[in-house]
Write a structure and sequence with these properties.
Blueprint lengths: L15 E5 L3 H11 L5 E5 L2 H11 L3 E5 L7 H10 L8 E5 L4 H10 L3 E4 L4 H41 L3 E5 L5 E4 L1 H7 L18 H14 L6 E6 L8 E8 L6 E7 L1 H52 L4 H30 L8 E4 H18 L3 E6 L5 E4 L1 H17 L5 E11 L2 E10 L6 H5 L21 H12 L3 E7 L3 E9 L5
Parallel strand pairs: 1-2, 1-3, 3-4, 4-5, 12-14
Antiparallel strand pairs: 6-7, 6-10, 8-9, 9-10, 11-13, 14-15, 15-17, 16-17
């Protein structure tokens, strides 16, 4: 880049230098001075020869003697400047004359510098290198300008055919170019093309100053940026989005202008529908919360009275009927509790009762409840613990519900098999975890069944155990509870080989 010439020294070993002098001794001196610099040197002993050689070899610099017999240096310089192919070659006059008029004449004809005889070696090298560097950077600048011009031309050709609004902007925010869709969005006509117009003038009056300040702050960062704004009412009633990015190898910005009125309207409709759904869900949760007492109270009464009657009736058909009523009541109460808990989770109304408790005592309570189910299908139950005394800060009721659901499922889908509850303690990234594993040797699950296992309102059926009841809510709740307690629930299974659930929870939920 031109601005970095002081830091960057170009390699000039391929530079071509033409020396013109009718005195061989002078040519010899110049050759000895410049040869160590590595330049490609050529020589001419007269003016006519110099003109022909310059047009053929196209040197990067000419050292030109003024006093020559056929054509003097002034005439050679004039001919070279009049020819388009050699007009921009820098010429340094070599002269013994120091008359100011001669020097001014040389500069008037287009010379860039002069060297006086006798030569000072260091001066010759310095002046030659300086003008070669200037020519090198000038060429580089011209190439860069051509690239920018070509890039801008390609940009405008592409923008012309694009169906969306495309703008080219200055750092000031002034619109340099806009394609037809952009003109339509900005209500700009061809007669306005040369007017000083800024992109934020497309916005409503109350937003223009704010958008201008945002723009001026953003251009310092030179990164992609975007904004949305109300369109000026004189143009249309709508909502626009502008996205800008810096143009490569240029100081301008390219921007895309879109009318997003319809999209915004759809978003607002969806937002209103979402808000309405959330309000309805809240009302539903409040209603279900209020129904909890109304549903559970009569069911507890039915179960309580049936259990009291069972104590009085020792045998016979009546006792069998009472047992069926009690079991059905307990099943219905469990179903009611699951539905209500799931509704609370959906409405984000589920509360945690966090406390420090003994995990061993919690597991004993779960085993006391699950023990009849283990015996029902003639299964064996084992519990493996890595430690004797374990304390945990979490919600003990939620933990017991999860383990009960996992163990009851294992009991339902395992006959004459083995059920294992294992507890391990692990440390991961500085956090202590409890890992509860429930394994069985039951019918197992297929990959397709596992895929839907934790989906709400989806019941996974197993043809091998068609007589086993259940709604599938227990596993869904277990997975939701695990998330509430800061952990997760996973499963692995093979058909006819059994299933293993892994519940991973933090030892201290405060962490």
């Amino acid at each position: 880049m031109i601005g970095s010439t002081r830091q960057y020294r170009p390699d000039l070993r391929t530079a071509k230098v033409l020396m013109v002098d009718d005195t061989p001794a002078n040519i010899d001196v110049l050759r000895k001075v410049l040869k160590p610099e590595g330049y490609k040197l050529s020589f001419a002993s007269g003016g006519n020869q110099a003109v022909r050689l310059a047009q053929y070899a196209m040197p990067d610099l000419i050292l030109l003697d003024i006093m020559m017999p056929d054509l003097d240096g002034f005439m050679v310089c004039q001919q070279l400047r009049n020819s388009p192919s050699t007009a921009d070659i820098p010429i340094i006059f070599i002269t013994a004359k120091t008359d100011i008029q001669d020097l001014l004449k040389g500069f008037h004809l287009g010379a860039v510098d002069y060297i006086t005889k006798p030569f000072q070696h260091a001066e010759v090298c310095a002046r030659v290198r300086t003008h070669l560097e200037n020519r090198f950077f000038l060429k580089q600048q011209q190439e860069l300008v051509q690239k920018i011009s070509a890039s801008e031309q390609r940009f405008r050709q592409l923008a012309t055919w694009m169906p969306i609004g495309v703008l080219q902007l200055k750092d000031t925010g002034q619109v340099v170019y806009c394609n037809a869709p952009a003109k339509a969005l900005m209500a700009q006509h061809e007669s306005e093309a040369n007017e000083q117009r800024y992109w934020w003038q497309t916005a409503a009056d109350y937003q223009q100053e704010h958008l201008k300040q945002q723009w001026l702050e953003h251009i310092e960062i030179e990164q992609e940026w975007g904004c949305e704004f109300d369109c000026h009412p004189n143009i249309k009633h709508g909502y626009y989005r502008l996205r800008v990015m810096p143009m490569p190898d240029a100081c301008d910005w390219v921007a895309v202008l879109e009318d997003i009125s319809a999209q915004r309207q759809k978003t607002q409709i969806l937002e209103q529908a979402k808000n309405a759904a959330e309000i309805e869900l809240k009302h539903k949760a409040d209603f279900l919360a209020g129904m909890t007492h109304e549903l559970r109270t009569p069911m507890n009464a039915i179960i309580g009275y049936s259990e009291m009657l069972l104590d009085d009736v020792l045998e016979g058909q009546v006792r069998n009927d009472l047992q069926k009523i009690t079991e059905a009541g307990r099943y219905l109460l469990e179903l009611i509790n699951n539905v209500l808990d799931l509704s609370k989770i959906d409405a984000q109304k589920m509360e945690l009762n966090l406390q420090s408790f003994s995990v061993i005592e919690a597991l004993d309570k779960v085993y006391g409840i699950i023990k009849p189910l283990v015996a029902k299908n003639n299964n064996q139950f084992d519990m493996q613990l890595e430690m004797k005394e374990i304390f945990m800060y979490s919600d003990p009721i939620k933990l017991q519900q999860i383990l009960f659901n996992l163990l009851s499922n294992a009991c339902k889908f395992t006959c004459n098999g083995h059920i294992l509850l294992r507890l391990q303690q692990k440390n991961d990234v500085g956090i202590d975890w409890f890992v509860f594993e429930v394994q069985d040797t039951g019918v197992g699950l297929t990959p397709q069944q596992i895929e839907h296992l934790f989906q709400k309102y989806t019941q996974v059926t197993n043809p091998q155990m068609h007589n086993v009841g259940g709604t599938g809510l227990g596993l869904v709740l277990s997975q939701q509870f695990a998330v509430l307690l800061g952990g997760h629930l996973s499963v692995t299974s093979q058909p006819a080989q059994g299933t293993a659930f892994q519940l991973k929870l933090p030892k201290n939920l405060k962490q």
